[in-house]
Amino acid sequence: MSIKVGINGFGRIGRLAFRQMFGAEGYEVVAINDLTAPKMLAHLLKYDSAQGRYALADKVQSTDNSIIVDGKEITIYKEPDANNIPWGELGVDVVLECTG
């Protein structure tokens, strides 16, 4: 059984947490909250000036309201107040606060 994770803030810390958890046994990232457009979030996930190119960079895409990594679609919310996101309805067990 995986721990379902939500990430609030997809800056450097949020992206690094995502890189560590995505595909790791025991974790499932189900939602991300960030005010930035999914297309830009996908680009930033692919390329990091300090960490280098993401191993799954060729498998990262975006839609109007999600990013898709290795075939898994992750909903992107653009909510200034993270309390308004339906974390419980999404089955999220843990929300990582990564807004800085």
Describe the protein in words:
- With 100 residues, this protein is an alpha/beta fold.
- The protein is 19% helix and 34% strand.
- It has two helices and eight strands.
Class computed from helices, strands and strand pairing: alpha/beta
- CATH H level: which superfamily? NAD(P)-binding Rossmann-like Domain
CATH class: Alpha Beta
The helix content, as a percent range, equals 10-25%
How are the SSEs placed, and which strands pair?
Layout lengths: L2 E6 L3 H10 L5 E7 L4 H9 E2 L3 E2 L6 E3 L3 E4 L2 E6 L16 E4 L3
Parallel strand pairs: 1-2, 1-8, 2-7
Antiparallel strand pairs: 3-4, 5-6, 6-7
Give keywords.
alpha/beta; two-stranded antiparallel ribbon; 100 residues; globular
Concise structural overview:
The protein is an alpha/beta fold. Helices cover 19% and strands 34% of the residues. It has one domain: 3-Layer(aba) Sandwich (Rossmann fold).
